[in-house]
Amino acid sequence: MKRFIGFVRKEFLHIFRDWRTMSVLFGMPVAQLMLFGYVITNEIKDAPMAIMDPSHDTYSMDITSRLTSSGYFLSERNISNHKEIEPVFREGKVKIAVVFPNNFIQQAQRERKATIQVITDASEPNTANILASYTESVVLKYAMSLQKSSGMGIRIEPKMMYNPTLKGVYLFVPGLIAMLLMLISALMTSITITREKELGNMEILLVSPLKPAQIILGKVLPYFLLSFSSAVLILLTGYFIFGVPIVGSIVLLLAETMLFILMALSLGILISTVTSSQQVAMMISMVALMLPTILLSGFIFPVENMPEVMQWLCKAMPPKYFITIVRGIMLKGNGLDVLWDETLVLSGMTLFLMILSMKKFKKRLA
């Protein structure tokens, strides 16, 4: 029995001395709990809102004040006509627009029913629904207070832009493209190169007439072509089977897709330089790539819902910018004039990862 207790004690000491094992046992659960606890929420706070109020009467100003003081919305800008609504939505500057009619207070007094139009960006259907519900609850509470005193009535007229039927597939197609490209490009590339090192084949390749750059290119080119084919297949399936529109330029969409694939391939090469086995490469890729792509990219959960620290972390995630680009091109018809900043950030990340991965790969081979 003493021998067994001594053996168990020795195993505990081995575990406690290995920081990698301890990080997996205790660090990963805490990190995952913090991520899921802060990310997975249906509450939305400080959503950017546009107000169109041509009447500027007491009722419209009271409703605007209640909306901005509710904690759900931030009044980012005032617009003067309907022509300004489409540009602010396309640029992603607002999530919701509240439009009051002319002579709002007179309509409420004479007709006993004044209509407020609530326009939301339904390229993210869940967010659009929640924001519309928030607005309706605030306005209806105010309407009830008016009914008690004067019998006046106010009703809401919702309008969902870019996705009027609130189809969930409009949300998932751009996210699936990003997730699958990360899976095929980064994960498979890191595992493939690591496997060559494990089997000792990398040394054989180095003594061949091929240069290191040619070896890397030969390894990643098949995954570039396969990733691009997979993205095209998803786009075709979404368009022909699920009816997801492609309003913008197809050429621009494919070019942005190739840019994202290059970034993911560079990231896969970088992972292969810091790992010595396929299992480690797979674990790093799954934890560092797949979960952030799902949770921190705006794929499912809006970034605006998260605490400020998490929002800064999201800004370091390349899939966040790619998903914004894909949604903008497919659903809103945006071009480079609107998406230039996301494209610039993604290009910078790609260039940085390409240079870093190539340098580290050469040092590792040396």
Q: What is the strand and helix layout of this fold?
A:
Blueprint: H1 2-17, H2 19-39, E1 47-52, H3 58-69, E2 73-78, H4 85-90, E3 96-99, H5 104-110, E4 114-121, H6 125-150, E5 154-161, H7 169-199, H8 201-206, H9 212-240, H10 250-273, H11 278-295, H12 308-314, H13 318-332, H14 336-365
Parallel strand pairs: 1-2, 1-3, 4-5
Antiparallel strand pairs: 3-4
Helix pairs in contact: 7-9, 7-10, 7-11, 7-13, 9-10, 10-13, 10-14, 13-14
Structural summary, described in words:
- The chain has 366 residues and is of the alpha/beta class.
- It folds into two domains: 115 residues, abc type-2 transporter like fold; 197 residues, no CATH class.
- Helix content is 68%, strand content 9%.
- The protein is built from 14 helices and five strands.
- A five-stranded mixed β-sheet has the order 2-1-3-4-5.
- Helix 6 links the parallel strand 4 and strand 5.
- The longest helix is centred in the middle third of the chain and has 31 residues.
- The mean pLDDT is 81.
